Structure formats: structure tokens, C-alpha cells
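Memo to structure team: turn this sequence into C-alpha cells by end of day. - J.P.
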Amino acid sequence: MRVQIKAIVLFIFIFAAAYTLRVIIVPNVVPIAEGEQPSWQLQFAFALKSIENIGIFGMVIVLLLAMSRWLMPLSGRIFSCEETHPENEVDDRLGGAERHQR
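Reply from structure team:
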């Protein structure tokens, strides 16, 4: 869980840094290419918007992986199709010795 939190914080930092730079350096530029040779402001805004999107999609991927890891044990208990048979059960009083003898 610690690695996931670190990854989310990293992607939040990437997004926040790119967004802040885009708002400060090129505040009124929409990153849509027009014409044959776009200006440096347009190119810079496009690059920063791309970095923002990397940060957002990175956060989404990490959150989806974290949720799948959290839901995996839950889904195993809900959708368990295993049937318990008396010959497969191990007597806990023997400390698992019966399991090793089979």
C-alpha cells in the first residue's frame, strides 16, 4: 500500500507542476494546433497539457490497480466455487502432520 501512495503522490506532483507552469507561463493559450507553424506558446502549452494528462492517467492506473488488489480477496470469498470434502479437511489438533503423511 505504501508504494501505491508514493506513486499517487508522484503523479499528483507531476500534474500539479505541469498545470501550475501552464497557467503561469502561457495563461491564455489553448493547446490546439492551428496553421502551419504554431507559436512557441502554443507548443509549450501543448507539451504541458500532455504532461498533465500523463499525471492524470498515471493516477487513474494506480488507483485501479490498488482497487483490484483490494477487491481480489473479497471476490475470492464471494465467488468461491470450491466445495469442501471431508477427506480434504485437516485435523488442526495434529498440527498439520496428517497433511504431510498423505
